[in-house]
Fold:
Amino acid sequence: MTENLQEVALPQEVQAFSILELFSQAGGFQWPILAVLIAGLVVLMLRIVRLFRDRLAARPLIRLSVESTTLSTLENAQSVAEDSLYTRLLSGVLQLHRSPEAMGREVSDVAAAAHAAYARTQRVITYCSSTAGGLGLLGTLVGIYALFSTGTRDAQTIFAGIAIAVVSTLLGIVTSILLELFEAVTHGYVSRYIESAQAWAQKVRSRVLCLSEEGT
Structure:
């Protein structure tokens, strides 16, 4: 009867083992890994906020009916619009409206500059991801060293060394995966926004060329 009760009690002990308890077994490596995760998420959040503000500022330009607009309407819209990717694209097109080739190059250059600005965010996230993995590997080495340097057969000491090695590696891998995942999602949003802005600028360019031909 006692043996049956012990068999039933074992799963309850396993269930009582929480994520926080697992987190605490990393031997202190959980804190720098957590700091790297927070830093990466903050960088991505700032980029998303910047994208949201840019889209909000560009809303009046996005709502313009490009196919039926006039050159004066575009100039007025550009003069009153807040700074955004759409505003910079429109400004470049209007300044170079007498040179079709120059307009095309300006649209490409502005879009390339927007991609380059986000590439800096990508480099930061890549560094954070690599740092998290490196910290996890360092925890593995420290755990292995702690395991073999003492030369003890004490089960508690052996478990502590193994726990540091396994949990720190696990946290580093999970953090790296999360950062890469969130970066991929953010990259998708940013790329689609830049591509839509570039396509809009090409429509404006075509409209300005038509208006210029009609004026001549």
Remarks:
- Helices lie at 2-16, 19-23, 30-62, 71-80, 85-95, 100-149, 155-215.
